[in-house]
């Protein structure tokens, strides 16, 4: 999708308080910052903006043609997107790939080196752990994060299979297939990394049947959305030894409640949706938005266009 080249600086409104990083991005993109009463063509959101007010803002501001969302996932904005399909919507998909992929790698290494158990230990114990080098990985999702995870894992001389919505080949992957063939790949994987978008089709993509197919020495990592994985099934799989470990940066429910069994599970590692902190991602969001403003002004296709039908 391309946009009509405007003859004057693009008018941009910020939903909420315009923080310095965002005003700098607007300036770097050659646009001008206006209020909602200044007939903005573009609306940009920062993390923490009240999502419930977005629909009211769009209803009251018909001049807005394009909405830039701050996150890769769009499920929190689905109501507004459905109400205004005539607008151009872009997300941050792919913009945060590097920090999120780094976190996925860190969690994978931590599980294989038994760091959750070591962190809880109160006495010296036997040396245990497994090297990531030469292992087999399964990456579920081939967006920006999934592709960056693939790149990092290949450094460890790993064979990496990729599951994605289509069978379009992913360069560097040993194989590329769809979720319909997930059961064929799970028994072969040493590390399973979930990096897909959460949609109606992918909800609880990893549940008890899928966990039962994994090796008892395999580990599960989720850095995408908590709803992709059945939390209760993970607890059962860890307790029974069906899998060797699970590292979750996202959970369902989220936040994970105090007293939840996963907090006490010795083979679980939980991080509080910390793969991409605000300190990491605000500069990346600013870069994405300023680039998109330049593209918008030049009539070029925007990065991170939302596919409402696909759900991301």
UniProtKB/TrEMBL annotation:
SUPFAM superfamilies: Formate/glycerate dehydrogenase catalytic domain-like, NAD(P)-binding Rossmann-fold domains. SMART domains: AlaDh_PNT_C. Keywords: NAD, Oxidoreductase. Residues 121-245 form the Alanine dehydrogenase/pyridine nucleotide transhydrogenase NAD(H)-binding domain. One of its GO terms (molecular function) is oxidoreductase activity, acting on the CH-OH group of donors, NAD or NADP as acceptor. PROSITE patterns: D_2_HYDROXYACID_DH_3. The keyword NAD applies. The keyword NAD applies. It comes from the Bacteria. Signal peptide: none annotated. This is 2-hydroxyacid dehydrogenase. It comes from Sinomonas atrocyanea.
